[in-house]
Amino acid sequence: MISIVLLLWVIFSFLVIKTKNFVRAVILLTICNSLATLSYFLLQAPDVAMTEAAVGAGLTTLIFVIAIKKIGVYKE
């Protein structure tokens, strides 16, 4: 199971680097952070997994979404 998660993590990380769309990159980065959270949990490090979920998938995504809206790339 951990091998599949790590493989997906590498694939989505590569997609984050290759995409040119800012919104898509933020979504893919959120998926990468969620996969990191899952991998830490599977490796029996729940404290690191909770920190990664809060900071990586939560706070970082929020900061990127605010930045994208401020620079005007994405408008509702």
Could you walk me through the main structural features you see in this protein, from its secondary elements to its overall organization?
- The chain has 3 helices and no strands.
- By secondary structure, it is mostly helical.
- It has one domain (2-71).
- α1 (2-18) runs antiparallel to α2 (22-42) and α2 (22-42) packs antiparallel against α3.
- The radius of gyration is 13 Å and the shape is flat.
Give a brief rundown of this model:
With 76 residues, this protein is mainly α. The protein contains three helices and no strands.
Task: Map the helices and strands.
Layout: H1 2-18, H2 22-42, H3 46-71
Q: What is the tally of helical segments? A: 3
Q: Please tell me what the overall shape is.
A: flat
Radius of gyration: 13 Å
Q: What structural category arises from helix and sheet content?
A: mainly alpha
Question: How many β-strands, per DSSP?
Answer: 0
Number of domains: 1
Portion of residues in beta strands equals: under 5%
Query: Which H/E pattern describes the elements?
Result: HHH
Helix content: over 70%
List key phrases describing it.
76 residues
